[in-house]
Here is the input.
Amino acid sequence: MTAQILDGAKLSAEIFAELRQRIAALPGSANKPTLMILQVAGDSASTIYVRRKLEAAHAIGIVAEHVIFPRKYFCCQSRISIATSPPR
Here is the structure.
């Protein structure tokens, strides 16, 4: 097996184009994939990472939401689970 050099930018563009087509072909708006990003506190490096994920999601037609929780939620995952649970 010989090594193959990949063109990352070209491969990324091809993957994005394919995903954009597949998402656009989904029947009805109720079936749109959704990305929900939950971030505790606002670390600047994390915020940049999240922003790029949101941009990528929107570029291919995915509904994307970003929720930032205050630092007080940092201590336990159960608080976030409660805060994001749908009302009963």
Q: What stands out?
A: The chain has a mean pLDDT of 83.
